[in-house]
Design goal:
Elements: H1 3-9, H2 14-24, E1 32-35, H3 45-60, E2 64-69, H4 79-92, E3 100-102, H5 107-119, E4 123-126, H6 130-136, H7 154-165, E5 175-178, E6 193-197, E7 211-213, H8 215-225, E8 230-234, H9 241-250, E9 258-262, H10 274-282, H11 297-303, H12 307-317, H13 328-342, E10 344-346, E11 348-349, E12 352-357, E13 365-371, E14 381-387, E15 389-393, E16 413-416, E17 421-429, E18 435-442, E19 460-461, E20 463-465, E21 470-477, H14 491-494, E22 500-508, H15 511-514, E23 521-523, E24 527-531, E25 540-547, H16 551-557
Parallel strand pairs: 1-2, 2-3, 8-9, 10-23, 12-18, 16-19, 21-25
Antiparallel strand pairs: 4-5, 5-6, 6-7, 11-22, 12-15, 13-14, 15-20, 16-17, 17-18, 21-22, 23-24, 24-25
Helix pairs in contact: 3-12, 8-9, 12-13
The structure holds one RNA strand.
Length: about 550
RNA sequence: UGGGGAAUAGUUCAACGGUAGAACAGCGGACUCUGACUCCGUUAAUCUAGGUUCGAAUCCUAGUUCCCCAGCCA
């Protein structure tokens, strides 16, 4: 596909409309975007929306997208996060090529521009304490007051800034502020801070600096240095745009980027806030950043969500300026959509119920053929061993079934997938009255699953051989939060106590012990699963990525 | 009560003065060796009130509701 074709196929959101118009008007030769994470946490699905937008737009319009770390605050940034972010962006399917940058790459230039602003009388060093600054900033409805240090001479400001840089003052002693308008309705324009003193070691610049630029001061100028054409960010930065523009207009920057804002992603039953996700990890509410219940890319990956599903999801939700909350069900749809096409089929019994086939000769076994993917003959088939004793799913048997229950019950005949028709003859219970075993008979004429006499069964159920299946632990994940709109301010109260369900006694068909560990599989009639890295020889662990759509569950509930 | 934004089916997004459309969800049906997949059908929306216009979701006016901003976080 040529880039013209790609551009035509590009989505129809307002960002792409703007870019299309800019290109047609000749305002830019090409489009350059950037994804600018701060390395203070792991990326989550909300970032995936931004990554797909920035990299997607660049690709569609034949431009490029930079990965730039917004590493201006060494007190909360770590190398671990830098590594994780690079890994996650790559995993999502995007490549920044040689365009890996850091705001810290520009510290020297940013500093030079700070002196430039001082010389132009547009910045000054303020000695007020943090409390004094807060008090003089005014409120949402009242204007602020000018700092008593606002009219220092250029020489004094230059001297103080240089000594700030040299590390002569303790943290918090002074800041460099832009001289804009303490009476502005937009609080971001009330002499914002450009530099603060931070005696902290930076992952990249070490202890070379004792002052660090603020986001507002660093971001736009970094964009300009990289010749970013469209600087796409989220809605909360909308009222920073006048400040973004002020710096660009008052500094001799090499290009003229423009900022555009879109609504960040919100998803039901989860919280997309780095602060909350960090607390979930640090507070031990989850096992780590890659806990499969986490909406982090690392968590989704471990859960078995394919990157293609995330990209599909992002395409479906669109890009707009209205705050919204996307139904988690839509993500699940995208996951099933991709996995249904790609995942090989296997049989696994999550909650085993033993079945003895009374008329099947003792000691005899045989091999039956099962398709790896019924809709994709190219995927081939594997052979599975059948014998006198098998396991079926407990949920597939009911002693006193309601009318619409098609599966096994006393006297009822069903098909064992790829095997035989069996009929339930007897129910064996323990002293507590619990069903512990089913005695069934099979029809040898139905080998492979078809009756020569053409008779039908209402249900086909999955099974595994008792002798040949392998034990496994299966982890079922439910929503991390019990409410569709958990309170980020008090998230612990809304946690779902049943977000993790461990099934310790599952039985898998043996192929699953040998299959390529990273491949997703469908456990027939149940859902999509993947092997968890916790697996060890002799102890397999599988994660449920997402269940199959379950119409029966709805019928049963009604 | 300052500044900045946003309001269209249950949800998310289109429609850019000319028949309000899609996806997901829902409902009904067909098919089926997965109660899956697939296919068919179907319910369902322009925040309110005025105005401009032959014609308004779209333009104007007034209002309503919701979101963001008072870090030396990003």
């Amino acid at each position: 596909m040529t880039s013209d074709e790609k551009a035509r196929e590009a989505g129809q959101d307002f960002i792409r409309d703007i870019i299309r118009a800019d290109l047609e008007a000749g305002r830019h030769k090409g489009v350059v975007t950037r994804f600018p994470p701060e390395p203070n946490g792991y990326l989550h699905i909300g970032h995936a929306k931004s990554i797909c937008l920035n990299f997607g737009v660049a690709e569609e319009f034949g431009g490029r997208c930079h990965l730039r770390f917004d590493d201006t605050n060494p007190t909360r940034e770590e190398q671990e996060y830098i590594d994780a972010i690079e890994r996650d962006v790559r995993w999502l399917g995007f490549d920044w090529g040689k365009h890996l940058y850091h705001a810290s790459d520009y510290f020297e230039q940013l500093y030079a521009w700070a002196e430039h602003l001082i010389r132009a009388g547009k910045a000054y060093v303020d000695d007020q304490s943090q409390e004094e600054m807060r008090a003089s900033r005014g409120t949402l409805t009242e204007p602020g007051r000018n700092s008593p240090f606002r009219e220092r001479t250029v020489e004094e400001n230059l001297d103080l800034l240089r000594r700030m840089r040299a590390g002569e003052f303790p943290n918090g002693a002074r800041v460099l502020r832009a001289k804009i308008d303490m009476g502005a309705g937009n609080i971001n324009l009330r002499d914002p801070v450009l530099y603060r003193i931070l005696h902290a070691s930076h992952p990249r610049t070490g202890t070379a600096w004792s002052i660090y630029p603020s986001y507002d001061y660093a971001h736009g100028q970094s964009d300009a240095i990289e010749h970013i054409t469209h600087s796409i960010c989220t809605l909360e930065f909308e009222d920073h745009r006048p400040l973004y523009d002020w710096f660009i207009e008052n500094l001799p920057v090499p290009s003229r980027p423009r900022q555009y804002e879109f609504a960040r992603l919100n998803l039901t039953y989860t919280i997309l806030s780095k602060r909350v996700l960090t607390e979930l990890v640090r507070g031990g509410h989850v096992q780590g950043w890659d806990d499969p219940r986490m909406p982090t890319l690392a968590g989704l990956r471990r859960r078995g969500v394919p990157p293609a599903a995330l990209r599909d999801f992002v395409k479906r939700i669109g890009v707009a300026k209205a705050n919204s909350i996307v139904d988690m069900g839509l993500l699940e749809f995208s996951v099933r959509e991709v996995l249904n096409r790609t995942a090989l089929r296997r049989m696994a019994v999550l909650r085993p119920l033993k079945v003895v086939i009374e008329n099947y000769p003792e000691g005899q076994t045989e091999e039956l053929e099962a398709a790896n993917h019924p809709d994709a003959p190219d995927a081939g088939a594997r052979r599975i061993r059948f014998g006198r004793e098998i396991f079926v799913e407990r949920d597939d048997f009911m002693e006193n079934p309601p009318k619409k229950f098609y599966r096994l019950s006393p006297g009822k005949e069903v098909r064992l997938r790829y095997a035989y028709f069996i009929t339930c003859r007897e129910v064996v219970k323990n002293a507590a009255g619990e069903v512990v075993e089913l005695r069934c008979t099979y029809d040898p004429a139905t080998r492979g699953g078809n009756a020569p006499d053409g008779r039908k069964v209402q249900a086909t159920i999955h099974w595994v051989s008792a002798a040949d299946s392998v034990p496994a632990e299966v982890r079922i994940y439910n929503q991390l939060f019990a409410k569709p709109d958990p309170d980020a301010g008090n998230f612990a109260a809304d946690l779902n106590p049943n977000s993790l369900e461990v099934l310790a006694d599952a039985r898998l068909e043996p192929a699953l012990a040998g299959d390529n560990a990273s491949e997703p599989v469908q456990f027939e009639r149940q859902g999509y699963f993947c092997r968890d890295p916790d697996s060890r020889p002799g102890h397999l662990v599988f994660n449920r990525t997402v269940g199959l759509r379950d119409t029966w569950a709805k019928v049963a509930k009604a």
